[in-house]
Amino acid sequence: MARVAIVGVGAIGGALASFLWTAGGHEITLCTRRPLKRLTVETPQGVLHIVARNVTDPAQADAVDWVLVATKAYDANGAAAWFPALCANGASVAVLQNGVEHRERFAKYVSPDRLLPVVIDCPAERTSDDQFRVRGPARMTVEDTLLGRSFAKLFRGCAAKLELTADFTTALWWKLCMNSVGALSALALKPSGVLREPAIERVARAMVAECAAVARAEGACIGDSIDDEVLTVYRGHPADSKNSLLADRLAGRRMEWDARNGAIVRKGEKHGIDTPLNRMAAALLEAVEGEPV
Ligand SMILES: NC(=O)c1ccc[n+]([C@@H]2O[C@H](COP(=O)([O-])OP(=O)(O)OC[C@H]3O[C@@H](n4cnc5c(N)ncnc54)[C@H](OP(=O)(O)O)[C@@H]3O)[C@@H](O)[C@H]2O)c1
Q1: What distance in Å separates the CA atoms of residue 61 and residue 84, rounded to the nearest whole number?
Q2: Distance, CA 49 to ligand 1 centroid (Å)?
Q3: Interhelix angle for 263-270 vs 168-180, to 10°?
Q4: How many A from CA of 125 to the centre of ligand 1?
Q5: How far is C-alpha 187 from the geometric centre of its chain's CA atoms?
Q6: What would the pLDDT profile of 31-50 be if each residue is shown by its tens digit?
């Protein structure tokens, strides 16, 4: 049994609550900006009504054993405002966000030995204020370390698959190769079927190739057929599925372009690798952010 706080209860925070709940025996605290009256999560295994404490002010929060951060990457500073109370007894912090810069984002708030980046693959969405849906199988990948194994133990017995890896760098960058082309949907204002259009597919392959070149320079083992792998995964998605960049743009919310395409540009610059397509995607998404569509 562990005391676990989830900071940011959106699509992924709701999914995490459902996994902890089915694993059983944990004391769950939901840290949100707006009060959550109840938490109902529809999962492929059934509908769960989760009992958890909800706090909306860091001053009300008590110390826990684990903090799971599930805000968007651009809300890292706001998420960290919860740490002084939640981590008062030295809690470990797992960061479940996209991108490759989990450690950089939280370095000034958490010591490296207590910080665990997590790659999460989980088709999830928030359907209303207190209703969430996990649409399919979920997988979380962490480093095979003491901290990674302790995180995996929290979820023993739940529907999500936990993977421990000795090569976390590759897991992070493989996901970023996938996420890099999500920008095309958000720019075209079309769901993922747009990647099946030949002209868009060519651009997508070139964006993945840029990301893969940077990934290799960062030490990831990414093969030459990564563009085929990425496009095969997208072809397996329903043509009308919307990635979160597109969903956020349509809803007039901020988008995570900086943690995705922006990160590829930044890391590329570090290695002297030019990434013009990802640079353009980041610049265009920044320019249209918040504009009515
Ligand atoms: N959705 C997916 O299927 C999926 C899959 C894989 C990975 N991811 C990644 O997982 C991360 C989370 O994504 P998401 O889709 O769950 O985002 P989301 O639905 O937008 O949820 C983020 C939540 O964080 C909350 N939040 C922001 N600042 C906060 C603060 N200071 N204190 C407490 N709560 C705060 C937001 O609150 P408000 O409701 O008040 O705005 C929102 O409910 C992202 O990095 C995303 O790329 C998502």
Answers
A1: 9
A2: 20
A3: 120
A4: 10
A5: 20
A6: 999 999 999 999 999 999 99
Q: Among residues 72, 175, 242, 267, which one is catalytic?
A: 175
Cα–Cα nearest to 291, from 243, 260, 228, 249: 249
Q: What distance in Å separates the CA atoms of residue 121 and residue 244, rounded to the nearest whole number?
A: 13
* Of 256, 242, 251, nearest in space to 286 by CA: 256
Nearest to 51 by CA among 88, 95, 20, 86: 20
As a whole number of angstroms, the distance between CA 236 and CA 83 comes to 39
Contact status, residue 65 vs residue 158, Cβ threshold 8 Å? no
**Mutate which of 12, 41, 42, 82 for ligand 1 pocket (most atoms within 8 A of beta carbon):** 12
- Determine whether the shortest distance from the Cβ of 176 to ligand 1 is under 6 A: no
Domains and CATH numbers, the chain: 3-166 (3.40.50.720), 169-288 (1.10.1040.10)
> Pick from 138, 5, 147, 11: which is nearest to 83 by CA?
5
Show the DSSP H helices in 51-189 as ranges. Answer: 76-80, 83-86, 102-106, 146-154, 168-180, 182-188
- Tokens 């109840």 correspond to 38
**Measured from the CB, is residue 124 less than 6 Å from ligand 1?**
yes
d(CA 175, CA 215): 11
Which ligand 1 atom sits nearest the alpha carbon of residue 15?
16
37 pocket-lining for ligand 1 (C-beta < 6 Å):
no
Instruction: Quote the mean pLDDT of the chain.
Output: 97
* Size of the chain, expressed as the number of residues it contains: 293
Active site residue 108: no
Backbone phi, psi, residue 63, to 5°: -65, 140
* Model pTM above 0.70: yes
Which two structure tokens, joined as six digits, stand for 158?
Answer: 């739940």
pLDDT tens by residue, 66-90: 999 999 999 999 999 999 999 999 9
Q: What is the DSSP letter of 189?
A: T
